[in-house]
Amino acid sequence: MRLDTPEGNFPPTRRTMAASLFFAGYATAALSSCASPVTTPSDELITEDVTFTGHGGYALPAYVARPAARGRKGAIIVVNEIFGIHDYIKDVCRRFAREGYVAIAPDYFDRAGDPAPMTDFAQIREIVATANHTQVMGDTSGAIDWLRAQSFTDGDIGITGFCWGGTVVWMAAAQLPHVKAGVAWYGRVVRPAAGSWGSEEERPWPYDVAAQIRAPVLGLYAENDTGIPLEGVENMRAALMAADNPTGSEIIVYPGVQHGFHADYRQSYNAEAAADGWARALAWFRRHGVS
Length: 291
Known about the structure:
Number of strands: 8
Largest sheet: 8 strands, mixed
Oligomer: single chain
Helix content: 25-40%
Structural class: alpha/beta
Strand content: 15-25%
Distance between the termini: 45 Å
Radius of gyration: 17 Å
Number of helices: 7
């Protein structure tokens, strides 16, 4: 059985594990020894751990960052990579909060454990596999309900996610009516080959529901991604076109960069592509009414 991951192939080295001692709170399995993670300050923000009702009535924890200023704000659901709610995901929430949004990162893997401190991909895979498609859509729907019930949100909700979370973005845009727009960072869009990571579950993939996508999605992908084949990305683009793409969804492929180019704690981080993608993401949400 193949053990390649949707995050690309980067088994931990001694240098990586040593670096993790200096960056506690980041995903150990993916942390680069030369990492310089961005740290977004939390002054003038409110950051808190909350709980909402997820799939099956489960009390699901989540990290929230929002402006301290009074008033109702648009909201962004931030969907994690396979490594869970580590410091990079929390920092992304604070980045959105500094742009005026309420950002929430649900802990989709809480029922099974925390993959962030792990170095063994087999153990990480076991945890991720427990978060099946039905559960994840139910948890995301629960996050939407929680946001819509808060006095500091205005009901406009977007969703963004990275790799594993990027796939969630496409599916949420097809299935959850309160999602107004999405930004999917290098999320798998076609069914994995038999024996590959994620192939065990019988479920729809974004390519399968291209004609049902009801909210505009901006897909941000890497030309040299070893985990998310470019052929599948082009197939998704073609499927959107075949469905007349009524939402105006777009796919952008960054030349010469690798999977995880936005993740500033990894060796694959590309500052130029990350900055361009972030600017496009903010513009996309504002263009489509999440502001």
